[in-house]
Structures are given as structure tokens and as C-alpha cells.
Amino acid sequence: MTNLRDVVEYAHTLWPLSGAENWDAPGLVSGSLESPVKRILLAVDAVAETVEQAVEVQADLLITHHPLLMRGVTSVNEELYKGSLIAQLIRGNVALLAAHTNADVVENGVSDVIAQSLGLIDTAPIEPGVIPGTGIGRVGNLPEVTTLGTLARALADLLPNTAGGVKVSGEFTAAISRVALCGGAGDSLLATDAVRGADVYITSDLRHHPAQEAREQALISGGPALIDVSHWASEWLWLDTAAAQLQKQFPDIDVEVSDLRTDPWDFLVVQ
After folding, report:
1. N or C end of the chain: which has fewer CB within 10 A?
2. 89 and 112: one domain?
3. Would you say residue 215 lies in a domain?
């Protein structure tokens, strides 16, 4: 029977820990490596809803993109939400594994899946990693020139619905051929040559000043239009690919993807 050690070892071949950023904390968060695994649930976040779902469906392992314990932990007091979640997982016999920036940079990782879903060709990382073909973000070409508005609409149709929707900075009819993107928070890449040389940059969590400065600079020396999408939605697309990889390796395990929306925003008031 497949045990947790088998799954963790394979997960680390798909998403090597060596690919993680030095501030990150991916890997096994809780669970006994000798425990049998018959069912896996994948989600972007370990939050109350997904932990409850994992326990309810009798999953033996919850794999999330975002680590629950990112920084030093001094307490697992159940009156604090992280302590409460860890306790629920332990009582429910559900192990917890995170694959974060180590799953962002690989082939068929978070950004790669978005690029594939948009049909980009001749793709390359925005910032290449040590291993060829890996790295943060992706940049590539559309098979045919489109407009910014049409691309934004296609992206909205591709991603799961969220309250924030898809925000765009740029002319609706602007011609788009070369696309740079980064699943999750990506305003740190705005000044890179790959992003500056694209017609549009798609990412999440664009803050006011970095976005404004990028657009103002584009008026002088050129630069991309911007598309800002939900952090959760941009990373949720990857879960199906990850599930398929795990299912192929472990056909005896039931692998499921959570359809719960864990984006933190519930509704939008349009002015």
C-alpha cells in the first residue's frame, strides 16, 4: 500500500525543494511518513473550509500550494487559527504537504499551466532558474495577434469566478502578441527585461505604486499593459495538472481537487 513517504518523495521529484525561494517553507507540515494514503485532496490554501473538507471526505493527505506555517511558530494554541487547523488535521488523521514556490518554477508548474491554457508558444521563464526550463514566471507569444480587451475576456473565462474579477490597465483595443505572466504575486518582476519587452503582463496583487510607476514609465519608453487577477484564481488552475500527475503515479489513490473558493474577498461594490 502507498504510504505518505511514497507520496512526499514523488512530490519532491515533481516540485523539488531546491527550487523554492529562500524565504519559503514548502514540504511536509504534519503527518507520519509511514501512514497509508488512499485519498488526496488538493487546494490552494489550508483554511478552515478546506481542512474541514479534507476531514469530511476522509482524505489522508491535504496538499496545498500555500504553506500554512510560513514563519517561525511559537504556539499551536487552538484559539489561534493555525493551531486550530493543525489540531483538526491531526485529529482527522490528515497529513499536510505544501508545494509553493518550488511548484511555481517547474515545467507544468503554476505559471507554465497559465501559459499553456492561454496557448502561448515559444515560452521561457521571466527569470530563469538553475535548471534549464525552470524559473519564475513565463513569457511567450500568442499564435495570433489579439487585442487587450479580447485577451482579458479570455482570461476571465479561463479563471474561476472571484469578486475582484479581472482588472486591466491599458487601451482596450491595444494589439497584443507577446505575453508575460506570473501566477500569484508578481509586481517584483515589473522591471525585468522580459516583462518590459512584452505587450502585456498578467499577474496578481499589483500594488498601487509599482503598477502606477510601470504604466507611467511605459508612456516614456514603452512597456506592457497590465492585467491583475485574483491570486487564488491564478494558482487554482495548476491544481488539476498536479492532481493528474499524482493520479498517474499512484493509480490506487483517489486524487481530488477542492472546488472551494478560498479567495478572501466575498463581494464587490461597483462605483
Report:
1. C
2. no
3. yes
- Is the pLDDT reported for residue 133 higher than 90? no
Distance of alpha carbon 41 from alpha carbon 115, whole angstroms: 24
Those residues whose C-beta lies under 8 Å from the C-beta of residue 1, and which sit 6 or more positions away, are 36, 38, 252
Q: In angstroms, rounded to a whole number, what is the distance separating the alpha carbons of residues 222 and 214? A: 9
> Are 41 and 118 within one domain?
no
Cβ-based neighbour number of residue 133 at 10 Å: 13
The rounded distance, in Å, linking the Cα atoms of 196 and 189 is 9
| Domain residue limits at 128 | 105-231
In a domain, 256, yes or no: no
- The Cα–Cα gap between 264 and 163 comes to 9
Q: How confident is the model at residue 5 (pLDDT cuts 50, 70, 90)?
A: very high
**145 and 92 within one domain:** no
- Which domain CATH number covers 187? 3.40.1390.30
Q: Model confidence over 47-61: pLDDT tens digits?
A: 999 999 999 999 999
**Whether residue 118 has pLDDT greater than 90:** yes
- What is the pLDDT at residue 35? 98
